[in-house]
């Protein structure tokens, strides 16, 4: 991979540290974490990246132990931050508080495009698939409250006019990300064209 590219993104890099194993015939509740020799696995990865002069981006989202991010940073691996998941207490994380050694973006292929997220497409999909753990009204209310806080934060920064439409909000969220110290920023093509549909379900 590195022979013909300037870098590689490792999806779910936590898999080099540990995975949740479930015994044959068991349920997820019967499972346990199995830990791997992450020093050897990451050592090989960063050695080959150094030889190729390439960058390694680790998708360190989800159930990731804090030491994983520290370990990645110590070895020069770029982490991943998604705006929707970056909160401090009950407020959106200020752009200045984002990681430096990081690829930051508003959305990812695992979420609807930003216009769809703002329209609660992710709630509708999870309701349709029967994945909600509480009534859909509660889920919508919580997501709407989070989105309102993001909108208010963008207004407070002068990135958005009060009452602006979805396209303006999507643009403001990208301007928010441009204020971060992150070394890499990504923009989803679906956001550029204003798509609402989730492509990875």
What are the salient characteristics of this protein?
alpha/beta; 7 helices
- Which structural class fits the helix and strand makeup? alpha/beta
Q: Determine the strand fraction and express it as a percent band.
A: 15-25%
Radius of gyration: 19 Å
The helicity comes to: 25-40%
Mean pLDDT: 94
Give the N-to-C terminal Cα separation: 26 Å
From the spread of the alpha carbons, the general shape counts as: globular
The total beta strand count reads 9
Strand order, main sheet: write it out. Answer: 5-8-9
Main β-sheet, in a few words?
Answer: 3 strands, parallel
Report the uncertain regions.
none
Tally of DSSP helical segments: 7
Order of helices and strands: EEEHEHEEEEHHHHEH
- What would you call the quaternary organization? single chain
Account of the protein in words:
This protein has 201 residues and is an alpha/beta fold. 38% of the residues lie in helices and 15% in strands. It has 7 helices and 9 strands; from the N terminus they run E-E-E-H-E-H-E-E-E-E-H-H-H-H-E-H. The chain has helices spanning 38-52, 66-74, 114-118, 121-128, 136-156, 166-178, 189-193; strands at residues 7-10, 18-21, 32-35, 55-58, 79-82, 87-88, 91-92, 102-105, 184-186. The strands form 4 sheets. It has a 3-stranded parallel sheet with strand order 5-8-9. Strands 1-4 form a two-stranded parallel ribbon. A two-stranded antiparallel ribbon has the order 2-3. A hairpin with a 2-residue loop joins strand 6 and strand 7. The mean pLDDT is 94.
């Amino acid at each position: 991979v590195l022979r013909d590219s300037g870098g590689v993104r490792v999806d779910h890099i936590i898999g080099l540290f540990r995975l949740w194993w479930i015994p044959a015939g068991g349920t997820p509740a019967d499972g346990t974490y199995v830990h791997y020799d992450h020093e050897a696995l990451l050592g090989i990865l960063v050695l080959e990246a150094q030889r190729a002069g390439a960058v390694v981006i680790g998708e360190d989202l989800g159930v990731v132990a804090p030491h994983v991010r520290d370990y990645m940073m110590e070895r020069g691996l770029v982490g991943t931050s998604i705006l929707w998941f970056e909160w401090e207490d009950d407020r959106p994380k200020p752009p200045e508080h984002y990681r430096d050694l990081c690829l930051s973006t508003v959305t990812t292929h695992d979420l609807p495009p930003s216009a769809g997220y703002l329209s609660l497409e992710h709630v509708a999909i999870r309701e349709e698939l029967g994945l909600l753990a509480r009534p859909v009204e509660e889920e919508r209310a919580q997501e709407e409250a989070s989105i309102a806080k993001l909108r208010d934060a963008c207004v407070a920064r002068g990135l958005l006019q009060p009452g602006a439409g979805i396209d303006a909000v999507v643009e403001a969220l990208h301007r928010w990300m441009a204020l971060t110290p992150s070394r890499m920023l990504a923009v989803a093509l679906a956001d550029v064209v204003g798509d609402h549909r989730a492509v990875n379900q």
